Amino acid sequence: MRRFFCENCGEEVSEKEDVCHHCGAFFVAIKCPRCRYRGKKHEFFRGCPKCGYLAERTGFETAFRRVRNEGRAARARRPMPAWVFWAALATLLLSFVLLSRVYVRLG
User: Fold this and answer.
1) Quick check: 1 pLDDT over 80?
2) Contact present, 2 and 16 (Cβ < 8 Å)
């Protein structure tokens, strides 16, 4: 997640804001905190166009993130174990039998 800061007061602001909600300063340009390059918001869509600050990471870090996300997706797609189904079915049947006996005794 990208973070933007007001140049006037230094408070963090949303990327979509045109005015700082802390000090009221108008944003006509964004300044890179690393190289001090100034430009419009759309120029910084993929990070700083001059020095690459906050640009898309490459190499090991991206590969590690991809493998980690694939692992999460694989865990999310795991089917429910069969014993859970049979345990739930047995519980429902046992409940039905017990409730029907109670109902017959009351009737």
Assistant:
1) no
2) no
Question: Measuring CA to CA, how many Å separate 9 from each of 25, 59, 88, 100?
Answer: 9, 36, 59, 72
Amino acid identity of residue 47, one-letter, is: G
* pLDDT tens column, 84-106: 999 999 999 999 999 999 888 88
Three-state SS at 30? strand
Number of domains in the chain: 1
Q: Which structure tokens are listed for 20? A: 């700082």
Residue 17: both structure tokens together: 């804001």
Q: For tokens 């898309």, name the residue.
A: 56
Residue 51 sits in which domain range? 4-56
- pTM, rounded to two decimals: 0.32
